[in-house]
Specification:
Blueprint: H1 5-15, H2 22-33, H3 35-60, H4 76-99, H5 103-110, H6 113-120, H7 124-142, H8 144-161
Helix pairs in contact: 1-2, 3-4, 3-7, 4-5, 4-8, 5-8, 7-8
Bound molecules: phycocyanobilin (CYC).
Phycocyanobilin is lined by residues 61, 66, 72-73, 78, 81-82, 85-86, 88, 108-109, 113, 116, 120, 122-123, 126-127, 130.
Length: 162
């Protein structure tokens, strides 16, 4: 089950049959203190999602061998599949950033993804480059603090794929 920063600390205290300890309370404090930042960033990202993906693709994949005949993004169908995948990564990273917890990424994005990519010949290295470009473009849009938060979850997807 996907959880968030609150259920994560509650579940771990409950397993031990204890109230939240200082460390757990500090985690919650940090989460609540950044709540508005997260919501504001999610609003900006959702209003600009298509532009973020487009710019990230231009920075990372466009005019490379991947978009030429023989490349995995060649043909309109595969190009569109790639853009759609990047849009998934951005959307789910935004959910995880709001939740303050990466478990939704394990559950809904990374589960079986590497195997799917390998069986279809989707290049993981180039995908990770595009995700890193999304990270840069997003940070330039939402600012360094929220950008860093988003970076945590975009990096989580990158490591999960590698
Ligand atoms: C929400 C969770 C979720 C994810 C993550 C997801 C990914 C996903 N990407 C796929 C394909 C694909 N993914 C890509 C992506 C790329 N090729 C490149 O060269 C680029 C580097 C890269 C984009 C960055 C491509 C081209 C395909 C189609 C491959 C093919 O059918 O030949 C497929 C195979 C089925 C299909 O084509 O739709 C899945 C399941 N599906 C999901 O439901």
């Amino acid at each position: 089950m996907a959880q968030d920063a609150i259920t994560a600390v509650i579940n771990s205290a409950d397993v031990q049959g204890k109230y939240l300890d200082t460390g757990a309370l500090e985690k919650l404090k940090a989460y609540f203190a950044t709540g508005e930042l997260r919501v504001r960033a999610a609003t900006t990202i959702s209003a600009n999602a298509a532009a973020i993906v487009k710019e990230a693709v231009a920075k990372s994949l466009l005019y490379s061998d991947i978009t030429r005949p023989g490349g995995n993004m060649y043909t309109t169908r595969r190009y569109a599949a790639c853009i759609r995948d990047l849009d998934y990564y951005l959307r789910y990273a935004t959910y995880a950033m709001l939740a303050g917890d990466p478990s939704i990424l394990d559950e809904r994005v990374l589960n079986g993804l590497k195997e799917t990519y390998n069986s279809l010949g989707v290049p993981v290295g180039a995908t990770v480059q595009a995700i890193q470009a999304i990270k840069e473009v997003t940070a330039s849009l939402v600012g360094p603090d929220a950008g860093k938060e988003m970076g945590v979850y975009l990096d989580y997807i990158s490591s999960g794929l590698s």
